[in-house]
Write a structure and sequence with these properties.
It is a single chain. The protein is an all-alpha fold. 71% of the residues lie in helices and 1% in strands. The protein is built from 18 helices and 2 strands. A two-stranded parallel sheet has the order 1-2. The chain is elongated and about 105 Å long. The relative contact order is 0.05.
């Protein structure tokens, strides 16, 4: 959840954090000043309560201040502070109402801060209640703030990245609802408006998945190939692997094998090498190249090795190579805790039967029945 990055009087260095105020005088140019000593005292009491995190008390003090000093020069900042207390208290409706007024009609000194926190309020309510419309409103406000010509560069950048945060959350909600077309549009908007967002690669992967669900295989592959060739990219290898999976699911096994081979050829130390080896074995098997497929499966390590050994053993049995199959299966048969052990026992029995080792085959079947 996005925090109040630009809370009251913390607007990218434009203001001092939560300043005290003084009564109006000629020797305080540029300072936030109240119209009277009484107004200054009331303002500072509310400010101090808010600074301590006592939002309930601060809220009452701000309300009292605005009832008595509604026309004071500090009233706009008091209204902003009141809305922030309401937001901290979870009163989204009241906070949004107050911040909207300042966003539309407030003086310049508070307008940008009001817009930012209005966006935050919509985002928080949208996340708390899973309301896509609120998240869309938050995105629009952040982007509007990013496009204001009078806003400083740091403000524009922060607003654009904040919009990216909300777009990611919105896309997740749309995906959860299986709104693939809407989610794809959301992720495209993020990549267009905030290409430097820290999670832009993750957004590209999510976009590709949404396109796959929408039966737009070629569009998904285009996104994945662009990501695989982006430099630098923390998701380059996964993008290649995912492209191979998409192609395999579409029956395009030659192209799937090309992607996997590219990953294995160029990135031998990748964290996805074992997954790539497994995908390589699947593609080769689909292309009716069983010997090469079995060799690829046999090289898999890590968590997928048990499944890979089963695949390799089955291929060797089809190739009439029961000795090799039994050797691979021994690693699984000798580990009772493996969920793949029953399948390994069954294939071991078939291998033994092919070798005319009847007693061993019967022993494997008995172990299988016992388990």
């Amino acid at each position: 959840m996005l925090l109040l990055r630009w809370a009251l009087f913390c607007w990218c260095g434009s203001f001092v954090v939560m300043p005290t105020v003084t009564a109006r005088s000629d020797d305080s140019p540029g300072k936030l000043v109240a119209g009277s000593a009484a107004a200054a005292k009331a303002y500072n009491a509310a400010r101090q309560a808010q600074a301590k995190g006592d939002y309930a008390a601060a809220l009452k003090l701000w309300e009292a201040f605005l009832r008595e000093f509604a026309d004071d020069p500090t009233a706009p900042t008091a209204r902003l502070s009141l809305a922030l207390c309401q937001l901290q208290q979870g009163d989204f409706k009241a906070a949004i109402e107050g911040l909207t007024k300042l966003h539309l009609d407030g003086p310049a000194v508070v307008r940008d801060a009001a817009t930012w926190n209005l966006a935050v309020a919509h985002q928080r309510r949208g996340e708390a209640k899973a309301l896509p419309d609120d998240l869309q409103r938050a995105v629009d406000l952040f982007l509007a703030l990013a496009e204001r010509s009078e806003s400083e560069v740091k403000r524009r950048t922060a607003a654009r990245l904040a919009a990216g945060d909300v777009l990611l959350r919105l896309g997740e909600l749309q995906e959860a609802a299986k709104q693939w077309t809407a989610a794809a549009a959301t992720y495209r908007r993020l990549l267009d408006r905030a290409p430097d967002h820290p999670r832009s690669d993750a957004a590209a992967l999510a976009l590709a998945d949404c396109l796959v669900h929408s039966q737009q295989t070629d569009a998904a592959l285009k996104v994945l190939d662009q990501l695989a060739r982006r430099q630098p990219s923390a998701h380059r290898d996964f993008a290649l692997l995912r492209a191979a999976e998409v192609l395999a699911a579409a029956g395009r096994h030659h192209e799937a094998l090309q992607r996997v081979d590219e990953l294995l050829r160029a990135h031998q130390k990748s964290a996805y090498v074992d997954a790539a080896r497994y995908a390589q074995g699947q593609a080769l098997a689909a292309l009716k190249r069983p010997s090469e497929a079995a060799a690829a499966f046999a090289q898999v390590r890590g968590g997928r090795r048990p499944d890979a050994l089963l695949e390799a053993a089955q291929l060797h049995l089809r190739l009439s190579e029961p000795h090799t199959a039994r050797k691979l299966l021994a690693e699984l048969v000798d580990t009772p805790s493996l969920p793949q052990r029953p399948a390994a026992l069954y294939l071991s029995a078939q291998a033994a039967w092919s070798l005319k080792q009847t007693d061993e085959a019967v022993a494997c079947y008995r172990k299988l029945i016992a388990e």
